[in-house]
Specification:
With about 90 residues, the chain is an alpha+beta fold. It has one domain: Translation Initiation Factor IF3, CATH 3.30.110.40. It starts with 14 loop residues before the first strand and ends in a 5-residue tail after the last strand.
């Protein structure tokens, strides 16, 4: 597991978003569009190659209230699991 990684990657995602090959700000823009289309409480798996996502995706989650369940980096690929906040 890469530095700064978190455990919990075993959860099966409800949705997958592949933004490999895209660079800032595109990965977060595409994540923002995708997260609008999923129900609260669902989990999105994001695959990226832009190292900036290791900063941007956690900030995105924090700012918008989504839960970053896990993140890892291996061989230049970044993987994130996010849980969309539920509207109670």
């Amino acid at each position: 597991m890469g530095s700064g990684g978190r455990r919990g990657m075993a959860k099966k995602p409800d949705h997958t978003l592949d933004v490999c090959g895209l660079f800032c700000p595109e990965p977060v823009m595409m994540l923002h569009n995708k997260i609008r289309d999923v129900a609260g409480g669902e989990v999105i798996e994001v695959w990226a190659t832009d190292p900036a996502t290791s900063r941007d995706i956690p900030k995105f989650c924090s700012f918008l209230g989504h839960e970053l369940l896990a993140q890892e980096e291996k061989d230049g690929r970044f993987r994130y699991l996010l849980k969309k906040q539920s509207k109670d």
